[in-house]
Task: structure prediction
Amino acid sequence: MIDFRGLLIFLIMITVSYGEQLDKANELNSKAVEFYQRTDYINALKYFKESLKIDEQTLTKEPIDILRGYNNIAVIYQKIEDDINALKYFKKCLKIYKNIFSKESLYISRIYNNISEIYQKRGDYLNALKYKKKYLFILEKILGKNHIDTSVAYNNIALLYDNLGNYHKALEYNKKSISIKEKILGKNHIDTAISYNNIATIYIKLGNYYKALEYTKKSIVIKKRY
Result:
């Protein structure tokens, strides 16, 4: 015969235990945030990890809470320039994001961009380009091809192609970027001038000095106004 009274007591004890664990996790997370705000990243990391450990052991926790923990830890590792662990935790984030959100959400695009920037910092331009293009794909889908954030992404991809020595591709993406800037910021904006200068640099690398001079002049004319 089932001991319903004993079962009920057991369930109540589990519920209380989970509640205490959640309170403890939240307390640790708050401490971590305080240390983060003081730029004490080592202690912030310690408390974020302790909070995450409890969250992972608590079955009632939603994946979004685990995700938040992974992201916080990844950001701290970025701050202390531990690229390997930052990559590890951002990729953990990515795995959960894909199960929660649409694969073409801005949430996922940000993780792609974070991963790309870490690879770029490490000089792994091929992987940086791979993730930056995933980031760009989502931006084009959600924000469109004429948004300033899309222009910045084009510019960053151009830089990666430049680092890889593929100057024709670098020029292609720089021109995509400048096309948007001219429409949104105007042809006399300082950011537009910087892009003209970037294009001039690529033309020099391609040996097309006539075009390099043309874009350099455009850049100089704008910069003289500032």
Observations:
- Residues 70 and 89 are 6 Å apart (CA to CA).
- Residues 1-18 have pLDDT under 50 and may be disordered.
- The chain has ten helices and no strands.
